Amino acid sequence: MDHDLIDQARRLAAARFPDALAVVLGGSAAAGRATASSDLDLAVLVPDGGESLRETVRFEGRLAELFVHTRAGLAEIFAADVASRRAVMQSIYADGLALHDPSGDGAAARDRAAADLLAGPPALGADAVEAKRYGLTDLLLDLADRQDPDEALAIGAAALGTATELLCDHHRAWVGGGKWLPRRLRAADPELGGALLAGHRRLCASGEPDRLVAAAGQVLGLVGGPLAEGYRRTW
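Request: output the structure for the sequence above.
Response:
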Protein backbone atom coordinates (compact mmCIF):
# COMPACT_ATOMS: atom_id res chain seq x y z
CA MET A 1 0.00 0.00 0.00
CA ASP A 2 1.35 3.42 -1.00
CA HIS A 3 1.36 5.53 2.15
CA ASP A 4 2.33 8.66 0.18
CA LEU A 5 -0.89 8.36 -1.80
CA ILE A 6 -2.89 7.81 1.38
CA ASP A 7 -1.34 10.91 2.94
CA GLN A 8 -2.08 12.88 -0.23
CA ALA A 9 -5.72 11.75 -0.08
CA ARG A 10 -5.92 12.84 3.55
CA ARG A 11 -4.57 16.28 2.68
CA LEU A 12 -7.09 16.64 -0.13
CA ALA A 13 -9.96 15.65 2.15
CA ALA A 14 -8.85 18.05 4.88
CA ALA A 15 -8.45 20.92 2.41
CA ARG A 16 -11.76 20.43 0.59
CA PHE A 17 -14.00 18.90 3.27
CA PRO A 18 -12.96 20.01 6.76
CA ASP A 19 -16.45 19.25 8.11
CA ALA A 20 -16.82 15.82 6.51
CA LEU A 21 -18.57 13.11 8.52
CA ALA A 22 -16.53 10.40 6.81
CA VAL A 23 -13.96 10.01 4.05
CA VAL A 24 -13.16 6.73 2.29
CA LEU A 25 -10.35 6.16 -0.19
CA GLY A 26 -11.33 3.65 -2.89
CA GLY A 27 -9.97 2.32 -6.16
CA SER A 28 -6.44 1.27 -6.94
CA ALA A 29 -4.89 3.53 -4.29
CA ALA A 30 -6.76 1.71 -1.52
CA ALA A 31 -6.12 -1.71 -3.07
CA GLY A 32 -2.37 -1.16 -3.43
CA ARG A 33 -2.47 -1.30 -7.25
CA ALA A 34 -1.92 2.38 -7.98
CA THR A 35 0.47 3.48 -10.73
CA ALA A 36 2.09 6.83 -11.33
CA SER A 37 -0.93 7.96 -13.36
CA SER A 38 -3.64 6.53 -11.09
CA ASP A 39 -6.20 8.96 -9.77
CA LEU A 40 -7.59 9.15 -6.25
CA ASP A 41 -11.17 7.97 -5.68
CA LEU A 42 -12.60 9.64 -2.59
CA ALA A 43 -16.06 9.01 -1.18
CA VAL A 44 -17.02 11.83 1.14
CA LEU A 45 -20.03 11.87 3.47
CA VAL A 46 -21.02 15.45 4.34
CA PRO A 47 -23.51 16.80 6.88
CA ASP A 48 -27.21 17.07 6.07
CA GLY A 49 -27.95 20.19 4.06
CA GLY A 50 -24.78 19.77 2.01
CA GLU A 51 -24.59 18.99 -1.67
CA SER A 52 -24.42 15.55 -3.29
CA LEU A 53 -22.21 15.62 -6.36
CA ARG A 54 -19.44 14.05 -8.37
CA GLU A 55 -16.45 16.21 -9.24
CA THR A 56 -13.04 15.71 -10.83
CA VAL A 57 -10.25 17.90 -9.51
CA ARG A 58 -6.47 18.05 -9.67
CA PHE A 59 -4.68 18.16 -6.34
CA GLU A 60 -0.92 18.37 -5.95
CA GLY A 61 -0.57 17.33 -9.58
CA ARG A 62 -2.78 14.24 -9.35
CA LEU A 63 -6.34 13.82 -10.62
CA ALA A 64 -8.95 12.94 -8.02
CA GLU A 65 -12.54 11.78 -8.39
CA LEU A 66 -14.73 13.07 -5.57
CA PHE A 67 -18.01 11.29 -4.77
CA VAL A 68 -19.73 13.57 -2.29
CA HIS A 69 -23.04 12.70 -0.61
CA THR A 70 -25.22 13.60 2.31
CA ARG A 71 -26.73 10.68 4.24
CA ALA A 72 -29.91 10.93 2.16
CA GLY A 73 -27.92 11.35 -1.05
CA LEU A 74 -25.87 8.27 -0.28
CA ALA A 75 -29.00 6.21 0.32
CA GLU A 76 -30.30 7.36 -3.08
CA ILE A 77 -27.09 6.50 -4.93
CA PHE A 78 -26.92 3.10 -3.19
CA ALA A 79 -30.47 2.39 -4.41
CA ALA A 80 -29.63 3.58 -7.94
CA ASP A 81 -26.48 1.46 -8.05
CA VAL A 82 -28.44 -1.62 -7.00
CA ALA A 83 -31.06 -0.92 -9.68
CA SER A 84 -28.31 -0.57 -12.33
CA ARG A 85 -26.82 -3.88 -11.09
CA ARG A 86 -23.35 -2.28 -10.86
CA ALA A 87 -22.95 -1.36 -7.17
CA VAL A 88 -20.18 1.14 -7.88
CA MET A 89 -20.52 3.20 -4.71
CA GLN A 90 -21.09 0.11 -2.59
CA SER A 91 -17.73 -1.24 -3.75
CA ILE A 92 -15.96 1.97 -2.76
CA TYR A 93 -17.45 2.02 0.73
CA ALA A 94 -17.21 -1.73 1.38
CA ASP A 95 -13.71 -2.28 0.00
CA GLY A 96 -12.12 1.13 0.52
CA LEU A 97 -9.87 2.49 3.23
CA ALA A 98 -11.46 4.72 5.88
CA LEU A 99 -9.44 7.92 6.22
CA HIS A 100 -11.78 9.80 8.53
CA ASP A 101 -14.77 8.54 10.54
CA PRO A 102 -15.01 10.20 13.95
CA SER A 103 -18.73 9.54 14.48
CA GLY A 104 -19.06 6.11 12.89
CA ASP A 105 -21.11 7.31 9.91
CA GLY A 106 -18.57 5.82 7.54
CA ALA A 107 -18.72 2.45 9.29
CA ALA A 108 -22.52 2.47 9.04
CA ALA A 109 -22.29 3.26 5.31
CA ARG A 110 -19.73 0.46 4.88
CA ASP A 111 -22.08 -2.00 6.58
CA ARG A 112 -24.98 -0.98 4.32
CA ALA A 113 -22.74 -1.28 1.28
CA ALA A 114 -21.49 -4.72 2.32
CA ALA A 115 -25.07 -5.92 2.85
CA ASP A 116 -26.04 -4.74 -0.64
CA LEU A 117 -23.05 -6.50 -2.19
CA LEU A 118 -23.81 -9.72 -0.32
CA ALA A 119 -27.47 -9.67 -1.36
CA GLY A 120 -26.53 -9.35 -5.02
CA PRO A 121 -28.27 -7.47 -7.81
CA PRO A 122 -31.93 -7.79 -8.78
CA ALA A 123 -32.62 -10.37 -11.46
CA LEU A 124 -33.30 -9.24 -14.99
CA GLY A 125 -36.94 -9.60 -15.97
CA ALA A 126 -38.00 -12.34 -18.35
CA ASP A 127 -38.56 -9.84 -21.17
CA ALA A 128 -35.08 -8.36 -20.69
CA VAL A 129 -33.44 -11.80 -20.75
CA GLU A 130 -35.37 -12.71 -23.90
CA ALA A 131 -34.32 -9.48 -25.60
CA LYS A 132 -30.68 -10.06 -24.71
CA ARG A 133 -30.86 -13.68 -25.90
CA TYR A 134 -32.21 -12.46 -29.22
CA GLY A 135 -29.60 -9.72 -29.45
CA LEU A 136 -26.71 -12.06 -28.66
CA THR A 137 -27.98 -14.70 -31.11
CA ASP A 138 -28.09 -12.07 -33.85
CA LEU A 139 -24.61 -10.80 -33.00
CA LEU A 140 -23.10 -14.28 -33.11
CA LEU A 141 -24.72 -15.08 -36.44
CA ASP A 142 -23.38 -11.82 -37.81
CA LEU A 143 -19.92 -12.40 -36.35
CA ALA A 144 -19.49 -15.93 -37.69
CA ASP A 145 -19.14 -14.84 -41.33
CA ARG A 146 -18.09 -11.20 -40.97
CA GLN A 147 -15.33 -10.29 -43.43
CA ASP A 148 -14.66 -6.66 -42.54
CA PRO A 149 -12.21 -6.73 -39.58
CA ASP A 150 -13.41 -3.44 -38.10
CA GLU A 151 -17.01 -4.60 -38.18
CA ALA A 152 -15.99 -7.91 -36.62
CA LEU A 153 -14.27 -6.16 -33.71
CA ALA A 154 -17.28 -3.92 -33.12
CA ILE A 155 -19.65 -6.91 -33.18
CA GLY A 156 -17.31 -8.89 -30.92
CA ALA A 157 -17.24 -6.13 -28.33
CA ALA A 158 -21.05 -5.95 -28.34
CA ALA A 159 -21.29 -9.74 -28.06
CA LEU A 160 -18.87 -9.78 -25.12
CA GLY A 161 -20.91 -7.12 -23.32
CA THR A 162 -24.25 -8.85 -23.86
CA ALA A 163 -22.87 -12.27 -22.93
CA THR A 164 -21.40 -10.76 -19.77
CA GLU A 165 -24.76 -9.30 -18.75
CA LEU A 166 -26.51 -12.63 -19.31
CA LEU A 167 -23.88 -14.67 -17.51
CA CYS A 168 -23.73 -12.32 -14.53
CA ASP A 169 -27.53 -12.34 -14.31
CA HIS A 170 -27.52 -16.14 -14.43
CA HIS A 171 -25.24 -16.17 -11.38
CA ARG A 172 -26.96 -13.16 -9.76
CA ALA A 173 -23.62 -11.38 -9.86
CA TRP A 174 -22.83 -7.70 -10.22
CA VAL A 175 -21.87 -6.34 -13.63
CA GLY A 176 -19.43 -3.59 -14.56
CA GLY A 177 -18.19 -1.44 -17.38
CA GLY A 178 -14.70 -0.59 -18.61
CA LYS A 179 -12.02 -2.29 -16.53
CA TRP A 180 -14.75 -3.55 -14.22
CA LEU A 181 -16.31 -5.70 -16.94
CA PRO A 182 -13.55 -8.35 -16.88
CA ARG A 183 -13.19 -8.10 -13.10
CA ARG A 184 -16.87 -8.72 -12.47
CA LEU A 185 -17.05 -11.33 -15.24
CA ARG A 186 -14.21 -13.38 -13.77
CA ALA A 187 -15.72 -13.07 -10.31
CA ALA A 188 -19.10 -14.31 -11.55
CA ASP A 189 -17.76 -17.33 -13.45
CA PRO A 190 -13.99 -17.83 -13.62
CA GLU A 191 -14.17 -20.63 -16.19
CA LEU A 192 -16.80 -19.43 -18.67
CA GLY A 193 -16.03 -15.77 -18.01
CA GLY A 194 -12.38 -16.48 -18.74
CA ALA A 195 -13.37 -18.26 -21.95
CA LEU A 196 -15.35 -15.22 -23.10
CA LEU A 197 -12.41 -12.93 -22.43
CA ALA A 198 -9.95 -15.29 -24.13
CA GLY A 199 -12.23 -15.52 -27.15
CA HIS A 200 -12.45 -11.76 -27.39
CA ARG A 201 -8.66 -11.46 -27.12
CA ARG A 202 -8.28 -14.02 -29.91
CA LEU A 203 -10.68 -12.08 -32.11
CA CYS A 204 -8.76 -8.85 -31.51
CA ALA A 205 -5.38 -10.47 -32.10
CA SER A 206 -6.11 -12.60 -35.15
CA GLY A 207 -9.63 -11.90 -36.36
CA GLU A 208 -10.64 -15.47 -35.46
CA PRO A 209 -14.17 -15.41 -33.95
CA ASP A 210 -14.73 -19.12 -33.23
CA ARG A 211 -13.67 -19.11 -29.57
CA LEU A 212 -15.81 -16.11 -28.72
CA VAL A 213 -18.77 -17.54 -30.63
CA ALA A 214 -18.39 -20.87 -28.80
CA ALA A 215 -18.12 -19.29 -25.34
CA ALA A 216 -21.04 -16.96 -25.94
CA GLY A 217 -23.00 -19.94 -27.22
CA GLN A 218 -22.41 -21.65 -23.89
CA VAL A 219 -23.84 -18.61 -22.14
CA LEU A 220 -26.93 -18.79 -24.32
CA GLY A 221 -27.27 -22.44 -23.36
CA LEU A 222 -27.49 -21.44 -19.68
CA VAL A 223 -30.30 -18.94 -20.19
CA GLY A 224 -32.65 -20.71 -22.59
CA GLY A 225 -30.62 -21.11 -25.76
CA PRO A 226 -30.34 -19.07 -28.97
CA LEU A 227 -33.41 -17.09 -29.97
CA ALA A 228 -34.17 -15.93 -33.52
CA GLU A 229 -37.34 -16.98 -35.30
CA GLY A 230 -40.35 -16.68 -33.06
CA TYR A 231 -39.08 -13.64 -31.21
CA ARG A 232 -41.72 -10.93 -31.04
CA ARG A 233 -41.64 -7.66 -29.17
CA THR A 234 -44.35 -5.04 -28.90
CA TRP A 235 -44.29 -1.47 -27.66
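Strands lie at 22-26, 40-45, 53-59, 62-69, 97-100.
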